[in-house]
Amino acid sequence: MSDDAAARAAADKLAAARTRLILDKPFLGALVLRLPLAAAGSWCRTTGTDARKLYYNAQWIAGLSAAEVQFALAHEALHCALGHFARRGRRVQRTWDVACDLSVNPLLLDEGLQPPPGAQVLDLYRGMAAEEIYPCLDDNPDSETLDDHAWDGDDGGQGRGDDPQQSGGSGGGATASGGGAGRGTEAAREAPPPLSAGERELLQQQWQRHLAAAAQRAREAGKLSGQMARLTETALAPQVSWRAALAQHLTQAARDDYTWQRPSRRTGEAGGDALFPALRSHAGDICIALDTSGSIDADDFAQFVGEINAIKGTLAVRVTLLACDAALSPDSPWVCEPWEELRLPRRFEGGGGTAFAPVFEWIERTGRYPDALIYFTDADGEFPKLPPHYPVLWLVKGKAPVPWGRRIQLN
Fold first, then answer.
1. What is the C-alpha to C-alpha distance for residues 165 and 396, in angstroms, rounded to an integer?
2. For residue 19, what pLDDT is reported?
């Protein structure tokens, strides 16, 4: 097919695919409309995005079916909506790119879209985020990504200044003004430069707004699937570091404050008629429960205890450690005073099922009311029906929900 014929065929297919997505899959269609289309040069094998535009190889698009073009467009839009361009951190770029594709493709397949040739779909990673898939891959994976992730360069995205206004558009902030696939389509013969740190942050905020708006529009139309609703809720949930949340709980429990209470004369602290504030310290009382049912390994436990000790070194916190799978460990509890280092008493082997009630029942039997209970678990078990009268922080490894308390995602 000649270049002109391929360009015309690609333009027609892209226009039809966007229209069909808007009608059948309004959530995905609304996201796709946020990416102006740009015909790319030889640098683009299939399609690609830098979170500002959607680039495409006309010859490749022309060779796809209408259903496959819909998949390709939605694939790029989900990369942007999920913020994959801003979440790599210090991970190996190529491995991260593959992990992002393995996360997105099953979602689109479950939505009834037809993947084009070269799209990697592995049931093993279905329902997993890119961060969860990444450790499962080799540093040099054999598989190729479906598309070109143009948001990164060999320099890791440090190749430009931080002014988004110099980047040729605001990307996620663009609307359908990029035109239909034929009329007004731009050409990008050279690959776009990688995003700077400032651009990543700005575009991530813009795409979060677009994600929320697309979900609302699809929900009003009665066409937001349960999977996409959950995906949106997860993506828009406040991203709180579990270490920061843990430090906050321990800091609130162990506090120094001033008191204006008159000192006792028997202690020799009386200072005449003048009353001065005195510093009083409160040693926090924290219960920590470890889920030893087998879903959390020794390395996870060691990292968690190390984090507790790092925070505990600056605060007066008394820790009571409990281990529980289907029942409380017979040698629990272990008590660590504020001046002692917290150590795991032994190596915990994987047990049977998971039940959370034994920990709460033990606290109730002892008549203790800790400043907080921190439960390190995968949350896959039977919960007590009612919450206790003290704060509970669930540090969850996995995707299971909790019925009450504060849930912090570990991975």
1. 40
2. 96
Which tokens go with 51?
A: 């979170």
- Selection from 27, 156, 168, 149 nearest residue 84 by Cα: 149
Q: 144: which DSSP letter?
A: P
Contact (Cβ atoms closer than 8 angstroms) between residue 186 and residue 36: yes
Would you say the C-alpha torsion 400, 402, 408, 410 has a positive or negative sign? negative
Sign of CA dihedral 173, 176, 177, 182: positive
C-beta neighbour count of 317 within 10 angstroms: 24
Q: What is the pTM of this model?
A: 0.58
Classify residue 389 as exposed, middle or buried by CB count within 10 Å of its CB (0-12, 13-18, 19+): exposed
Give the span between the Cα atoms of 115 and 179, in whole angstroms.
25
Domains, the chain, in order of start with CATH, read 3-236 (no CATH), 242-263+275-409 (3.40.50)
CA-to-CA separations, 324 to 321, 330, 334, in angstroms, rounded: 10, 9, 13
Tell me which amino acid residue 394 is: W
User: Which residues fall within 8 angstroms of residue 65, CB to CB, at 6 or more apart?
Assistant: 114
Tens-digit pLDDT profile for residues 156-195: 433 333 333 333 333 333 333 333 444 445 667 788 999 9
Q: Could you tell me what percent of the chain has a pLDDT over 90?
A: 39
Exposed / middle / buried, residue 233 (Cβ in 10 Å: 0-12, 13-18, 19+): exposed
Is the model more confident about 60 or about 182? 60
Cis peptide before 333 (omega within 30 of 0): yes
